[in-house]
């Protein structure tokens, strides 16, 4: 059934982690997302990319999980890079005021390119 | 209206997270049946989930049931969300500060704000021992 499905994977491009979510990020699935990322977040990181291209739905519970990544990177003086959000997801992100907290990119290529530039400049 | 006849778009739920699946299914089915665009379907599902999550997590004493009805007329979706929990008016909540920097962002409080921003109306009434929330979305 579509509803319960939420998968999260972490991929590394060079040393840059990309958190890839597939499915719904809501009241039911957000705790699983948080649990999965627990060990990953034990290591402080200034830069994480979040791939939302396969997320069809997000609620405030899902955004709360995303905010944890925002705070995690901010704690090291960095920012979360978020890409691939579909229009309905983007509307929620904009209402939340997240665009001032994260770097938004249309797709993975743009996010990776920008992250490369930033790490050189750092 | 609270006394409205039950119709196929009304669903009765137990206020437990397990039943969120049924609520979402009901909204998604309604959206598919009426050919709603993804943005409209998303906003309606979101509103339903946020209210349901509030009832499940915060109603003290716990609510005994939740009832949710969707209707469509003249390009406007009207939703009625009812629970018999403790009196609670979410429409009276102050909007969160969405301009705060990351480290100061509270971890909650966005759900009701989404409804206020994505619906054309959002009203509360305490009626016959029940919380009755009505919201409408004008379809694009």
From TrEMBL, chain A:
Transmembrane segments: none
Xref: PROSITE patterns: STAS
Domain STAS: 6-115
Cited CDD domains: STAS_anti-anti-sigma_factors
SUPFAM superfamilies per record: SpoIIaa-like
Highest taxon in the source lineage: Bacteria
GO MF, any single term: anti-sigma factor antagonist activity
Coiled coil: none
Entry's family note: Belongs to the anti-sigma-factor antagonist family.
Protein name stated in the entry: Anti-sigma factor antagonist
Record organism: Granulicella rosea
TrEMBL record, chain B:
Family annotation (CDD domains): HATPase_RsbW-like
Annotated ranges, domain Histidine kinase/HSP90-like ATPase: 16-136
UniProt keywords, alphabetically: Kinase, Serine/threonine-protein kinase, Transferase
Alphabetized GO MF terms: protein serine/threonine kinase activity
Gene3D superfamilies assigned to the protein according to its UniProt record, in alphabetical order: Histidine kinase-like ATPase, C-terminal domain
Record flagged with keyword Kinase: yes
InterPro entries to which the protein is assigned, alphabetical: Anti-sigma-factor_SerPK, HATPase_C_sf, HATPase_dom
Protein's UniProt keywords contain Disulfide bond: no
Protein name (record): Serine/threonine-protein kinase RsbW
Organism of provenance: Granulicella rosea
């Amino acid at each position: 059934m579509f509803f319960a499905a939420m998968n999260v994977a972490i991929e590394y491009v060079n040393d840059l982690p990309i958190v890839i979510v597939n499915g719904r990020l809501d009241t039911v699935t957000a705790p699983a997302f948080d649990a999965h990322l627990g060990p990953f977040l034990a290591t402080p990181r200034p830069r994480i990319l979040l791939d939302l291209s396969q997320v069809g739905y997000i609620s405030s519970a899902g955004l709360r999980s995303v905010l944890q990544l925002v705070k995690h990177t901010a704690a090291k003086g960095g920012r979360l890079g978020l890409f691939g959000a579909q229009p309905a997801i983007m509307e929620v992100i904009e209402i939340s005021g997240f665009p001032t907290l994260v770097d938004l990119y249309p797709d993975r290529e743009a996010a990776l390119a920008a992250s490369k530039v930033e790490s050189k400049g750092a | 209206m609270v006394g409205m006849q039950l119709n196929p778009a009304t669903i009765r739920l137990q206020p437990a997270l397990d039943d969120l699946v049924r609520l979402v299914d009901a909204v998604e089915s309604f959206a598919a049946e009426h050919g709603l665009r993804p943005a409209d379907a998303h906003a309606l599902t979101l509103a339903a989930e946020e209210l349901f999550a509030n009832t499940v997590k915060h109603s003290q004493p716990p609510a005994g049931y939740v009832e949710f009805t969707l209707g469509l007329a003249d390009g406007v979706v009207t939703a009625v969300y009812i629970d018999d929990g403790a009196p609670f008016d979410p429409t009276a909540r102050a909007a969160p500060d969405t301009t705060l920097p990351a480290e100061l962002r509270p971890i909650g409080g966005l759900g009701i704000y989404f409804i206020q921003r994505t619906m054309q109306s959002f009203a509360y009434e305490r009626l016959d021992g029940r919380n009755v929330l009505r919201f409408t979305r004008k379809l694009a």
